[in-house]
Amino acid sequence: MQPIIIVLIILVVLVFIALIKTIQVIPQASAAIVERFGRYTRTLNAGLNIVVPFIDSIRNRIDLREQVVPFPPQPVITQDNLVVNIDTVIYYQVTDARAATYEVASYIQAIEQLTVTTLRNIIGGMDLERTLTSREEINAALRGVLDEATGKWGIRVNRVELKAIEPPTSIQDSMEKQMRADRDKRAAILTAEGIRQSQILTAEGEKQSAILRAEGEAKAAALRAEGEAQAIRTVFESIHAGDADQKLLAYQYLQMLPKIAEGDANKLWIVPSEIGDALKGLSGAMGNFNPMAGMGGMGGGGSVPKQTGGNGTERREQPPID
């Protein structure tokens, strides 16, 4: 009985192993290469797959998702004979598991070496300044070459990035000094522009202030003149409306004489024709006082010519004021 039990146990174990070998579960976004007696048979896709146990074998499991591989810094010589270290990052995806398995031994190493050689060819035709400012151009050239070369390997290069470009230390110091000088220059230019603009704005403000001040003074002078004219009209209208007699007019004129005589520029006096008659009446009332002798009989008005009467008294003729 014991040999039979041992045989049965061995058979059960063999069946269990055969079932394990027969059923293959492939995860999503993955693929597996099946070989039969060392020869490629088929590619297993995601899901449950059945293979022949002990005959078919799984050669390789490949991840079909996009992969990111950073490469270490590589020394590259530019066109102006400067050595720069460039870090690159490759984004690739396996599109054909069979080609990635059988067309190249190690596609990661192949992509790295191809990236280095292509990068040296591209950077070798550029100077340092263009290398530092043409990352997009370098990325596009790298991607085109890599995508064309890796297509037969069943790999698609989606993106190539230059992570860092490090020039020599002496060149970095020179670049920092140049950038500092450029910043100082721009700062000086901006300061000068600010001072110039401030002076322009100040001058324009003073100009506008002077214009407004002159306009205000002109309007004030016009308003004062208009007020004085209105006051004169009101006074004369009041005098004529009140029918003032000659004595009042003479008295008012005598009060205004000092004000009229003020200033060195008063060379000509305007004397109303009614003042003569008023002064005559005032002189008759005051006796012998006659300051305006000879002014009677002035009919019309005009300028004030100097005339001398028979007794040597100076006479002035004035136009009437309505």
Distance between the termini: 164 Å
What is the gyration radius calculated from CA atoms?
Answer: 59 Å
**Which class best fits the helix and strand makeup?**
alpha+beta
Oligomer: single chain
- What is the percent of helical residues? 40-55%
How does this model look, in words?
- The structure is a single chain.
- This protein has helices at residues 2-22, 97-102, 107-123, 128-133, 135-150, 169-242, 246-261, 273-286, and strands spanning 23-26, 30-36, 39-44, 47-50, 56-63, 67-77, 83-94, 155-166, 307-308, 314-315.
- With 322 residues, it is α+β, with helices and mostly antiparallel strands.
- The N and C termini lie far apart (164 Å).
- 13% of the residues are buried.
- The model is unreliable at 288-322 (pLDDT under 50).
Describe the protein's topology:
Layout (H helix, E strand, L loop, with lengths): L1 H21 E4 L3 E7 L2 E6 L2 E4 L5 E8 L3 E11 L5 E12 L2 H6 L4 H17 L4 H6 L1 H16 L4 E12 L2 H74 L3 H16 L11 H14 L20 E2 L5 E2 L7
Antiparallel strand pairs: 1-4, 2-3, 2-5, 6-7, 7-8, 9-10
Helix pairs in contact: 3-5, 7-8
